[in-house]
Amino acid sequence: MTSLLFVCTGNATRSVIAGALARAARPDWDVVTAGTFVVEGMPIGWRTRGALTELGIEAPGHRSTQLTRAHLDAADVVIVQEYQHVGYVRRNHPEAAPRTATLKRLVRDLADDGEPLATRLAALGLASVELEPDWEDVVDPGGGEVEDYVACARELTALMRDVIPRLGARVPSP
Questions:
Q1: SS3 of 110, please?
Q2: Burial class (CB in 10 A: 0-12, 13-18, 19+), 166
Q3: Distance (Å, whole) CA 33 – CA 31
Q4: Which residue in 31, 35, 90, 159 could disulfide with 11, CB within 3.0 to 4.6 Å?
């Protein structure tokens, strides 16, 4: 079974939405979400819930979770939302760096050539690839209006629609 770990800062919006999209695409995969700086156990806020509703998906029972080594050890690929999250993993969990990339980098660079996922990730040199903050981030809508959360959700939907087939499935249309 493929194991995906989605990471953002607070595990409150971006990783939650990306994880919900992945679960909808492949309920047979193990999909986990976590954050690098979390208030442990917080439920989804109303703005994130509104964005999920806009997409027609849910994240039932979600509670924010701090990223741990156990999460990273279990993941086939760690998909983060900002280049700074890659830096966090490189500094604190270097053993997971070869499997950690921003969602946008995976959309741009992950081959879809039939090779095993681990082989395709290794070819990207993720542990040392130069991070590019000008384009790699999915901007955090935190503190914004509902429309900002919905815009983030739509961006994530488009990105996930592109990357999930490379991982092995199609993201359903909302």
A1: coil
A2: middle
A3: 7
A4: 35
Give the sign of the dihedral formed by CA 174, CA 7, CA 14, CA 66.
positive
Strands in 77-80's sheet, in edge-to-edge order, are 30-35, 3-8, 77-80, 100-102
SS3 state of residue 7: strand
- All residue ranges of the chain with pLDDT < 70 are 168-174
CA–CA separation, 173 and 36 (whole Å): 29
Cα(158)–Cα(80) distance, integer angstroms: 16
In a domain, 173, yes or no: no
Q: Would you say residue 174 lies in a domain?
A: no
| Residue 103 belongs to some domain of the structure | yes
- Write the CATH number for 155: 3.40.50.2300
Q: How far is the C-alpha of 163 from the C-alpha of 82, rounded, in Å? A: 16
Question: pTM of the full predicted structure?
Answer: 0.95
Torsion angle, alpha carbons of 62, 105, 86, 93, to 10: 90
How many independent structural domains does the chain possess? 1
In a domain, 152, yes or no: yes
Give me the domain span that covers residue 94. Answer: 3-167
Q: Exposed (0-12), middle (13-18) or buried (19+): which is 80, by Cβ within 10 Å? A: buried
Backbone angles phi, psi at 61, to 5 degrees: 70, 10
C-alpha–C-alpha distance, residues 41 and 4, integer Å:
20
